Amino acid sequence: MQVNPAVSVRESQGNRLEQIGELLRPTARTIRWSPFVGAIAVALRQVFVQTRDVCPRSNPCVGPEARVLALRIAAILIALGSAFVLDDPTEETTGHFPTPRWLRRAVRVGLAAPVAALTWALLIPLAMRGSVDTNPFPTGALTLELATLVIGALAISAASARFVPEGMGGVAAGPILLGLVVAGHYLPSQLAVFLIDPQTPRWHAAHDVWKVLLLIAVAALLFVSRDPWRRSLRSFGGSVRPRPRPP
Predict the structure, then answer these.
(1) Distance between CA atoms of 142 and 50, rounded to whole angstroms?
(2) Euclidean distance between CA atoms 75 and 44, whole angstroms
(3) Shortest CA distance to 155 belongs to which of 218, 229, 235?
(4) Which residues are CB-neighbours of 65 under 8 A, at least 6 positions away?
(5) Which domain holds residue 130?
(6) How many other CB atoms sit within 10 Å of the CB of residue 106?
(7) Is residue 10 part of a domain?
(8) Tens digit of pLDDT per residue, the chain (247 long)?
(9) What is the rounded CA–CA span in Å between residue 9 and residue 7?
(10) Which of 92, 187, 97, 76 minimizes the C-alpha distance to 142?
(11) Is residue 59 part of a domain?
């Protein structure tokens, strides 16, 4: 009897939705929220202090460069905190479960993403308060940087988990991400990606590089989120050859 492919797809989608529903509550309890929330609190405080303008509006002390720098530091802080979201000491022992690793990690990211998005939505007006600059502020470009940094931190955390005790990849992701950020600041001016002045001629070219980095970070996160035992089964199955029947 042939099975309708459309029915199989609907059943598969229903099973995935059911698995996601079952994972939401226990995953929310096991996520390491304290580093993530702590990083958000520091980011809010840092942006508030760094963009506080005590000068008169006719002669402001805080320009767009200071606001860009404040939001970029906040993005790095959020990325450092988000690296701990994927920490799961039981991940290696639950690899044989019917729920794939990528789905378990996707649920973790899905629970933390709204918190990060809401924080960023609060940081933008916080940084822009009192601004009298008539040039458009590069909110989209800085949001691109945030997304790249966060997804990059998640990819580094996921890749580092197997080398860190109890699978705490977030502990290793922080120093690695900071090292990459510091290295990015020492790039030649022709290759610089951490620009301060939104009016500089290389601003748009630099953020074309950020788009490429975002794609690389997403691909890396997907790659390291594969199930090792499923890959082993596929490679094992591919290496088996049927034995010829005797004549």
Answers:
(1) 17
(2) 10
(3) 218
(4) 196, 197
(5) 23-226
(6) 17
(7) no
(8) 444 444 444 545 557 677 777 788 888 888 989 999 999 999 999 999 999 987 777 677 888 999 999 999 999 999 999 999 998 876 654 444 567 888 888 999 999 999 999 999 999 999 999 887 888 999 999 999 999 999 999 999 999 988 887 778 899 999 999 999 999 999 998 899 999 999 999 999 999 999 999 999 999 999 998 876 544 444 444 444 444 445 4
(9) 5
(10) 76
(11) yes
Going from the C-alpha of 69 to that of each of 76, 161, 195, 247, the distances in angstroms are: 11, 31, 9, 77
Burial, 127: exposed, middle or buried (Cβ in 10 Å; 0-12, 13-18, 19+)?
buried
Residue 103, domain member (yes or no): yes
Tokens matching residue 80: 């450092």
Please give the structure tokens belonging to residue 188. Answer: 């030649």
Please report whether residue 237 resides in a domain: no
Q: Determine the Cα–Cα distance for residues 113 and 155; give it in Å rounded to an integer.
A: 15
Provide the domain count of the chain: 1
Reading the block at residue 93, the tokens are 């022992």
Could you tell me the two tokens for 147? 């997304």
Does the pTM exceed 0.70? yes
Block residue for tokens 């690389």: 216
Question: How many beta carbons lie within 10 A of that of residue 175, not counting itself?
Answer: 12
Nearest to 23, CA basis, from 82, 151, 117, 109: 109
